[in-house]
Automatic annotation (TrEMBL):
Residues 58-176 form the Hemerythrin-like domain. This is Hemerythrin-like domain-containing protein. Residues 1-49, 192-212 are annotated as: Disordered. PANTHER family: HHE DOMAIN PROTEIN (AFU_ORTHOLOGUE AFUA_4G00730). Pfam families: Hemerythrin. Residues 13-42 have a biased composition (Low complexity). It comes from the Bacteria. It comes from Catellatospora citrea.
């Protein structure tokens, strides 16, 4: 057999193998490009922490509660005079939100704030007294029929009291607490407060401030 014929046969024999290898490389590149980004970037032993696990600091948590309540107040103010069922539902939500909020403040935030920033002591005492008034107003609203002409009046006075309370906390002494406590301590306190919400009473008269 001539050398030329032998070389030709070798080329023909190796061509399928080369094509197969090329196809394999092409497939590998395509798979890498189309693979989900999370699968490409994730490395063993490294897991990203879910956002919910990061938590919120105590003051941010309380401010968020304030926003929720203010939103309910605005809904009540926009409801028509004859929207009895709607207003009853809103007031029930307000009672629940404020009772829970007052509970975590009185049991966790106020004592910690007073210890960390002693200069806030008078503010804390005033806040507890304001809670006392609010707790009894909430209890009265819980037992007042929305058709009663005093229902809207009671809610209006409650909103005025709570808005005043919130303004004093957020503008006058929350900043002092933030200065006195580290970010880590505030986050740890925030986690405890969030967990304590499930233990809050449904009856506002069971709050510590209501009995004072």
């Amino acid at each position: 057999m001539s050398q030329t014929a032998s070389t030709t046969r070798q080329r023909k024999a190796t061509t399928p193998a080369k094509k197969a290898a090329k196809a394999t490389k092409t497939l590998a590149k395509t798979t890498a490009k189309t693979a989900p980004k999370s699968a490409v970037k994730t490395s063993p032993g490294k897991k990203s922490m879910p956002a919910a696990a990061v938590g919120q600091d105590a003051i941010a948590l309380l401010k968020d509660d304030h926003k929720v309540v203010e939103k309910l107040f605005k809904e009540f103010e926009k409801a028509g005079d004859a929207a009895y069922a709607k207003k009853r539902k809103i007031v029930d939500q307000v009672i629940s939100e404020l009772t829970t909020h007052a509970y975590i403040e009185e049991t966790l935030f106020y004592p910690t704030a007073r210890k960390a920033a002693p200069e806030t002591g008078e503010h804390v005492l005033e806040s507890v007294e304001e809670h006392h008034v609010v707790a009894w107003m909430l209890s009265e609203l819980a037992g007042t029929d929305p058709h009663d002409e005093r229902f809207d009046a009671k809610m209006t006075v409650l909103m005025e009291n709570v808005r005043h309370h919130v303004k004093e906390e957020e503008q006058e002494w929350f900043p002092e607490v933030r200065k006195a406590m580290s970010r880590g301590d505030l986050k740890e306190l925030g986690a405890k407060m969030e967990a304590a919400k499930s233990k809050a009473p449904s009856d506002p008269l069971k709050l510590r401030s209501a009995k004072a």
